[in-house]
Amino acid sequence: MTGERVHAFGDDALGEHDAVALAAAVRAGEVSARELASAAVERARLVDGRLAPVAFEAYGSPRAGRDGADAALAGVPTFLKDNVDLRGMPTGQGSAALTAGFADQLLGTGLTVLGKTRLPEFGLNASTEYAAAEPVRNPWRPSHSPGASSGGAAALVAAGVVPIAHANDGGGSIRIPAACCGLVGLKPTRGRLVANEQSRRLPIDLITDGVLTRTVRDTAAFFAAAEQQYRNPALPPLGLVAGPGGRPLRIGLVLDSPLAVTDEQTRRAVEQTAARLEGLGHRVEPTALPFGEQFAHDFTLYWGYLAFLIAATGKLVLDRGFQARKLDGLTLGLRRSYRREFLRTPGVLRRLRQAERTYAGMFEAYDVILSPVLGHVAPAIGHLSPNVPFEELIERLRRYVAFTPVNNVTGAPAISLPTGETDDGRPIGVHLLAPHGGEQVLLELAFELEQDRPWRRIQD
User: Exactly one of 127, 145, 173, 371 is catalytic; which is it?
Assistant: First the structure.
């Protein structure tokens, strides 16, 4: 596989427009939803052989979202991640062991679903790779990982197939692929969108849905449109965030995790972003995350608990054809690890629930925290393969996913923005964290950074 970028941008109905621009063109009668869908299908076929992001094609019978003036993104094509149910489309969970209310909210924004995107088995890995199937590849460098678990969605958006795609995040799965593929990825506050039906029954609900986009305004438009379908009265209303906030912020700068020393290229991207924020009038000062080895161990054990549940209940809950013996090495390794330590579960749950109070304490001094998304830049395909021996793989994952899980456990919002790049021109994302309900300040700051220096484009 060469190092050449793979994209499908061209002179068709989609052009180089984002979702907001395409929806406006549909409303103005300049282009039809059918023309946009047709162009997206052709683009998907152009890249699928090289990137392998599509799990299920519904090209002949796409699922149209709500039409009309009240649907902000009416007519814009998209894909749904293959761990959310939608009538008429199978759900495979990325697993060879298998032969929502949120989907209704997504369709209510007007988006047209053309199919489903690939994810690693049950979304447990941080790279979209498989034990015995072709991996999803990064459009910026096909020899490298697009991240996970929303890796298929990220590949399609970064490659220009669609401007926006569904993603969800249980340990970084919106923010990680955004960082790897040069996209905007907002993990919202827990409860901001309709809850995931399966995860809401767990002791701690780690998973929140969202989208991956190429522009901040597309992310803002999606959340504003989704709020028209459902608004959680326990959270401050978000509305349509349309630009920078215009006020100086106190920003805490975190460069390393207690789990790993950040690599040089990622550190440089975060430091350069901090300097830009200071130049824009914000106050930035060093701080540290108040979470250490105990938090990491507790999260890993809970991660294993989820794998244990999948293996134990798959035939009953997921599919009668479920075969636990076909689970990949990571899922089986996590299950074994949990079974050795399951007696620790009550203490783990107690400490993880207490993390929300610890997290809130960071924002007594700061409005926002700036950190890396990941401990190091996107690795080559194979580095995080489920075929790597489990003990080695879990240590690699702990060093890589060293920042994102805090916001899943606490339920607080965070966003990945593509402000940096590697020495060989691949994107590096930086991470902005806010208090619960603080999506507005994250989007305002994202607009400010994007307007100050627009993101690099894969087609340039």
Answer: 173
